[in-house]
Amino acid sequence: MPEPVLMHSAGITGDAVIQKIDDLYVMFYFGAFWEDRKGAFNRFAASTDLVNWTDWAGENLIEPSEPYDDLYAHKSFVVKHKGVVYHFYCAVNKHDQRGIAVATSVDLGKGKKSFVPAPIPKKP
Predict the structure, then answer these.
(1) How far apart are CA 28 and CA 6, in angstroms?
(2) Residue 20 CB partners (closer than 8 Å, separation 6+)
(3) Sequence-separated (6 or more) residues with CB below 8 Å from residue 110
(4) Among 65, 9, 6, which Cα is nearest to 40's?
(5) Phi, psi at residue 3, to the nearest 5°?
(6) Which one, of 102, 4, 90, lies nearest residue 55 by Cα?
(7) 15, 12, 10, 8: which is closest to 88 by C-alpha?
(8) Tell me: the pLDDT tens digits for 43-102?
(9) Cα→Cα distances 39→48, 115, 123, Å
(10) CA–CA gap between residue 115 and residue 108 (Å, rounded)
(11) pLDDT of 30-46, one tens digit each?
(12) Does residue 70 contact residue 93 with C-beta atoms inside 8 Å?
């Protein structure tokens, strides 16, 4: 059985997407419930041979930061188009509403879409 590429002492890592950028393979993935980070977030690792990987040691690429992703921001797909990097991801808020969000490498403004209002909890 092959050995895992990336392992963490606690939490989960999953849903890898690998893209070749010049001579480098970049694996975008999400992590969740790690001991040193909250919620779910997107990170990456890089390799020249698809066997040996260097995990990014910096800040998360995407993490909960907006009302629409204040619970989880995870499951990446990254594409570069006409000089702009688009980072699509699953956004989940604290009302368990889910949608696809996008972060960009240049400021393209904020969208006007939002989730429908969260349901009001029924009293027992």
Answers:
(1) 12
(2) 26
(3) none
(4) 65
(5) -80, 150
(6) 4
(7) 15
(8) 999 999 999 999 999 999 999 989 899 989 988 899 999 999 999 999 999 998 999 999
(9) 30, 20, 28
(10) 20
(11) 999 888 887 889 999 99
(12) yes
119 to each of 58, 66, 91, 95, 116, how far by Cα in Å?
37, 19, 18, 8, 9
- The number of residues making up the chain comes to 124
Query: DSSP secondary structure string, the chain?
Result: -PPPS---SSSEEEEEEEEEETTEEEEEEEEES-TTS-SEEEEEEEESSSSS-EE--SS-SB-S-SGGGSSEEEEEEEEEETTEEEEEEEEE-TT--EEEEEEESS--------PPPPPPPPP-
0.85 surpassed by pTM: no
Structure tokens at 53: 């990987």
